[in-house]
Amino acid sequence: MAAYQERWPGEVVMVGIDGGEDGNVGLGAEWLPSDDLPFRVHVATDLAEALAAARADIILAPHHPNFRAVLDMSMPAALTSEIPARDAAIPPLEEGPAASVRARIVAGAVRYEWQLRGMAKRAAGLQCNGWSAWEAYSRFSPDPLLFYDTRLTREQVDAASRDDRTLLPDGQIRLAFSGRYVTGKGPMYAVRLHEALRDRGIAHTLTLVGDGVLEPALRAKAGDDVQFLAPMDFDTEWVRWVRESVDVMVLPHIQGDPSGTYLEASGLGVPVLGFDNTALRNLVSRFDLGWVGPLRDVDSLADIVQSVVADPGEIARRGERGGRFMQEHHFDAEFDRRIEHLLGILASR
């Protein structure tokens, strides 16, 4: 929101419904007094009322049925799309529900998909965060934009490009998972990869950074030879730690979520290893910033690790390609593009 305010030629207002605190926030998030923010905050019990009070020229809202009211307002609305209906259904299906529950999940995903397609058609524009949303919904929008959501700034990408890295110190490849310990992010597959590499006798370390509901199960499965670290402050801790302590970032997400960690590791010169979901598949096939294996196939990930241990130069090469990609798609560049897109929608009205 601060980035929007810095770039938008006018006032930026955050409009929201007072739903209380549900704890569903990202790692490292903090609550702030609204009076300390560089933009105005308007909270109401009714979305249409809040939007009318904001008196906006254009609305930017989530691509979710809860926000269909924005499409009935007199001002144009652009939607931010992230996770397609098919990917949203993956985590609950991964839990192996009973057949009747599975059928309800699939039916719900189909209804959800039709709602999202209809919203994309009605909105003045669609900002697709990553390839999963782009492939699913851009064709339905009159004015779509593909962007990459990342916290990594231009200065951080440039600093990483000037910094030499020592790979595989002491002959061990240093693997890390970073993110929430939830089913969709696949942290359990990172632990299974550790077991597969150990069975093959491949010298390595694995560190998991984050927290979440799966942490007790992960710790029980991992044993004492996997390191667990608490969430880090991104700017002051995480960036330096990844650059200095990780050879390959292991992100075996089972859904095609537009993970900023893919981009942030890549921008620091650290290639990404994960599953062949829509989001990572496109990043790897188009920009060569890492490797993918078939979904849920831990042995394929172990094969890739074994091959790069024999050729560490491949880690460096893919890390450099990721850094080059992020020199064009860092935080600053992406917000410039998003603002230009919104201004273009207004200019066309």
Task: Explain this structure.
This protein has 349 residues and is an alpha/beta fold. The protein is built from 15 helices and twelve strands. β11 (272-275), α12 and β12 form a beta-alpha-beta unit. α8 runs parallel beside α9 (215-222) and α8 crosses α13. The protein starts with a helix and ends with a helix.
Keywords for this structure?
349 residues; alpha/beta; six-stranded parallel sheet; four-stranded parallel sheet; 15 helices; 12 strands; globular
Quick description:
By secondary structure, this protein is α/β, with parallel strands linked by helices. The chain is built from 15 helices and twelve strands.
What characteristic shape results from the CA principal axes?
globular
Radius of gyration: 21 Å
List low-pLDDT spans.
none
Q: Which class best fits the helix and strand makeup?
A: alpha/beta
Average pLDDT level: 92
Strand content: 15-25%
How would you characterize the largest beta sheet? 6 strands, parallel
Total E-strand runs = 12
Q: Report the helical percentage.
A: 40-55%
Question: Which oligomeric state applies?
Answer: single chain
Order of helices and strands: HEEHEEHHHEHEHEHEHEHEHEHEHHH
Number of helices: 15
Cα distance spanning the termini: 24 Å
Largest sheet strand order? 9-8-7-10-11-12
Secondary structure layout plus pairing:
Blueprint: H1 2-7, E1 13-17, E2 40-44, H2 47-54, E3 59-62, E4 77-81, H3 85-88, H4 90-94, H5 99-122, E5 125-129, H6 131-137, E6 144-147, H7 154-161, E7 173-178, H8 187-200, E8 204-209, H9 215-222, E9 227-229, H10 234-245, E10 248-250, H11 260-267, E11 272-275, H12 278-287, E12 290-293, H13 298-310, H14 312-326, H15 331-347
Parallel strand pairs: 1-2, 3-4, 4-5, 5-6, 7-8, 7-10, 8-9, 10-11, 11-12
Helix pairs in contact: 7-14, 8-9, 8-13, 11-14
